[in-house]
Structure formats: structure tokens, C-alpha cells
Amino acid sequence: MKAVVSVLVLAMAAGNAMAQDAKKAGKKDMTFFVTSVGKGDGANYGGLEGADAHCNTLAKQAGSKHDNWKAYLSKSPSPGAAGTDGVNARERIGKGPWYNAKGEMIAKNVADLHSDKNKLTKQTALSEKGEPTKGRGDTPNEHDILTGSDPQGQYSTAGGDTTCGNWTKNGEGSAIVGHSDRTGLNESWSSKAWNSSHGSRGCSQEQLKSSGGAGLLYCFVPN
Q: ω into residue 151 within 30 of 0, thus cis?
């Protein structure tokens, strides 16, 4: 009898181990995160390249095997360029799908990401460490994520500064931000917009902080 029980226990243990291995094997690699910290210089990242480098540095520290991370940021056209050198955030991040640090799918493709089909919430918009970003109701609120983009992930044509000088300013100016927790002052669409909620009060670290930000970024692997 004891021998039978021992065999059953061993079989159950082996089964559990196989189940755990299968679970690990099925977990998707992280290809999306919200930066746990900003660069510390407001919205000044030294342009798109500097923002990409920040994403890659944090990803590497978290153990990511990818080295081609891109910040979800748009770049406004230069004066007189007639839009020819503008950059749309949606065109920097690949085709999808993208997964957070827990292996949860954020969006299947670019179209879903920019629609009600995306899965971004406070619970899924995780940092590279797998931690939620502080949102409305937390201290401090850091849900304002820099994007410089309209709801479709394109650079804004509304006029004025919407990218803090294409991510080179840390003083006067403004940048479009989105709410990572999809929550704001009311139930309007802009309050719930992950990528295009409102303009920042300025470009400095303190000005970003004053309206619920910390100079954080969305980072994607272009797959």
C-alpha cells in the first residue's frame, strides 16, 4: 500500500512539474512596458534616439534579450518641411502583437492598439519590472505618459508645440500625454485615452509632475 501511495505522490509531483514547465514555455516574451522612471530631465530625451536608448537601457536592466526597443513618440515636422520629416509613433513600433512583463497581450496589431480592442489598463500597463504605474488616486500620480501623438498615434496637426520641441525641451513648451490607467477627471474619451489625453503644463520635470506625470514613456519592440 505504501509503495502505491509513493508511486502516486511521485506521479503527481512529476505532473505538477510538467505543468509548470508548460506554463513557463507558454509565457510570452515582454515586448511592451511603461518606463519605471523617466530620464529625469523632463521631456528632454535628446530626441527620439535618446528616448529609444532610455527604453533599451531599462529593458536590459530588466533582463530583456531585445536591444531594438522603440519609444512610442511622434515627432512634429520641422518648420517649412511640409510634413516630410514628421514621424508617427504608430509607425515606429512594428506590427504586433505586444505583451507586457507578465506575458499578457496588450494588443494584437497596430489597428487594435489604436482602438477599443486594446487591453491597456492600470493592471496591464506594467513597467519593465512588472509593476503597475502609479495612477489617479495614488501618490504621486504618474499616469501622464509622453507621446506627442493624436488618438491614432500620429503627430498632431493642431498647431503649437505638442512634442516639447521634438523631445529636446526641459522648460517652456508642451507635449501631448496619454493616461496609462485610462482614468481622468471625468468620463470623457480624452480622460480614458492611453495615448492622447491632453497637453502637459510644460516640459520641465516639475511641470510634468504638477499635472500627474514623471516624464515616463511607452516602449515597444518593433516585431
A: no
How far CA 194 is from CA of 84, 143, 164, 165, 191, in Å, comes to: 27, 9, 19, 21, 8
Q: What angle do CA 192, 72, 100 make, to 5 degrees?
A: 75
Burial class (CB in 10 A: 0-12, 13-18, 19+), 15: exposed
Q: Which three cell numbers stand for residue 91?
A: 509607425
- DSSP-derived pairing of the beta strands 70-71 and 32-34: unpaired
The C-alpha angle with vertex 16 and arms to 12 and 18, in degrees rounded to 5, equals: 115
Q: Which residues contact 176 (CB under 8 A, 6 or more apart)?
A: 147, 148, 149, 150, 156, 162, 163, 196, 197, 198, 199, 200
pTM reported for the whole predicted model: 0.87
Q: Where are the beta strands (DSSP E) in 47-141?
A: 70-71, 98-99, 105-107
The Cα 167–Cα 146 span in angstroms is 9
pLDDT at 223: 87
Helix and strand numbers, DSSP H then E, in the chain: 5, 8
Of the ranges 55-59, 82-86, 196-200, which one carries the lowest mean pLDDT score?
A: 82-86
Least Cα distance to 141 among 192, 110, 89, 183 occurs for: 183
